[in-house]
Design goal:
Blueprint lengths: L5 H15 L10 H18 L1 H8 L3 E26 L2 E28 L2 H9 L3 E2 L4 E3 L1 E3 L2 E3 L10 E10 L10 E5 L2
Parallel strand pairs: 4-7
Antiparallel strand pairs: 1-2, 2-7, 2-8, 3-8, 5-6
Length: about 180
């Protein structure tokens, strides 16, 4: 089977089903439940990452992804749901999905926030039929209450990603290749 064992395929399928069963999205309570999770994520960022707070205050829009669950064994995937806010008001709900393959094993959860710094970047995101994170994102990894890795006030990137709250045992969290799609709760 071209290097793929039946066991890997079965385990990968199980991981995908496990991700689909995760309770991190919109449930029977519609958007209210997801908005409550987004509020908690926003409040956490404000309380713990002052550099992100200033960035968010000046943003054209912010996509909050409260929980993304990622799992993999050879093949892997990630899934989460969140809300896009403009002036701290939810305007749309989005899912984030990612598929991967290669040398990987484990599972993790993490949160992230995409800050759209310009109206053009926000318009491009909202107009896309499935926007994929790529090279136009710069990462600001919060460390000890501040943004580490970039100087967010001087970077020219139109989108800044804050990734935080990692738990589990897959090394790192990247948003490259993550596809964001509008959903209806």
């Amino acid at each position: 089977m071209n290097g793929l064992s039946r066991r890997n395929i079965i385990l990968s399928g199980g991981a995908v089903l496990g991700l689909a069963a995760c309770g991190n999205g919109v449930g029977g309570q519609g958007g209210a439940r997801l908005d409550a999770r987004v509020d908690a994520t926003r409040d956490y960022v404000r309380a713990n990452f002052p550099g992100a707070t200033a960035e968010i205050a000046n943003a054209a829009g912010v996509l909050y992804m409260p929980v993304v669950t990622e799992a993999g064994f050879g093949f892997g995937g990630a899934y989460g749901r969140g809300a896009l806010r403009i002036n701290d008001v939810t305007v749309d709900y989005y899912s984030a999905t990612q598929a991967s393959w290669g040398l990987q094993i484990g599972a993790q959860q993490y949160s992230h926030v995409l800050v759209f710094r310009t109206p053009e970047a926000l318009s491009k995101f909202r107009a896309a039929d499935g926007w994929a994170a790529g090279t136009d994102i710069v990462y600001a990894l919060p460390d000890g209450g501040a943004a580490a890795g970039i100087e967010t006030t001087t970077t020219l990137s139109p989108v800044v990603a804050y990734v935080f709250g990692q738990s589990g045992f897959i090394a790192g969290a990247t948003l490259n290749g993550t596809k964001y799609s509008r959903i209806i709760p």
